[in-house]
């Protein structure tokens, strides 16, 4: 078993662990966002009830409640934007994992001596290349989506 194969295998495992850790962090953050959404929703409901029920309250109090309500909406929008970014990151991780697996399969076929390859091996190698190109194109689309989102936020 050549050293370069062991090195590639070790690097693949390290990359897989990094993706796993990143996926766990994203999952935790998505759960935190969900909890925060619920809290903001409850606060918003309370403020809306106060605004509707308190007809005789001073205008300053109503203005303060409206400002709080607008702040909650702004915070919710920012959390939704973050959630959207995280969902894109999840898709990117999935595609990255898929690309890694396809790379490993392709390496297996490419390491085989050309004269020993069967027509099925060649067809499988071509199919893997097509799948790999598809994954790369999907990742490219995600990058364009992120860039467009970033530019629209500016």
From TrEMBL:
Keywords from the UniProt entry: Coiled coil, Membrane, Monooxygenase, Oxidoreductase
Has keyword Coiled coil?
A: yes
Query: Transmembrane region positions?
Result: none
The lineage's top-level taxon is Eukaryota
Among PROSITE patterns, the record links this protein to: BMERB
Alphabetized InterPro entries for the sequence: bMERB_dom (IPR022735), F-actin_Monoox_Mical (IPR050540)
Q: Give the location in the cell.
A: Membrane
Give any Pfam family that matches: bMERB_dom
Could you tell me what this protein is called? MICA1 monooxygenase
Q: Which organism is it from?
A: Eolophus roseicapilla (Galah cockatoo)
């Amino acid at each position: 078993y050549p050293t370069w194969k062991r090195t590639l295998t070790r690097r693949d495992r390290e990359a897989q662990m990094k993706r796993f850790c990143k996926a766990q962090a994203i999952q935790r953050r998505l759960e935190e966002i969900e909890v925060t959404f619920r809290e903001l929703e409850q606060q918003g409901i309370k403020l809306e009830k106060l605004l509707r029920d308190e007809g005789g309250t001073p205008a300053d109090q109503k203005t303060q409640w409206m400002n709080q309500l607008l702040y909650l909406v702004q915070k919710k929008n920012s959390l939704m934007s973050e959630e959207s970014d995280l969902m894109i990151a999840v898709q990117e991780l999935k595609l990255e994992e898929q690309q890694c697996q396809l790379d490993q399969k392709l390496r297996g076929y490419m390491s085989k001596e050309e004269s020993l390859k069967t027509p099925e091996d060649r067809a499988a190698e071509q199919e893997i290349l097509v799948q790999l190109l598809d994954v790369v194109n999907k990742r490219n689309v995600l990058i364009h989506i992120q860039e467009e989102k970033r530019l629209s936020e500016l």
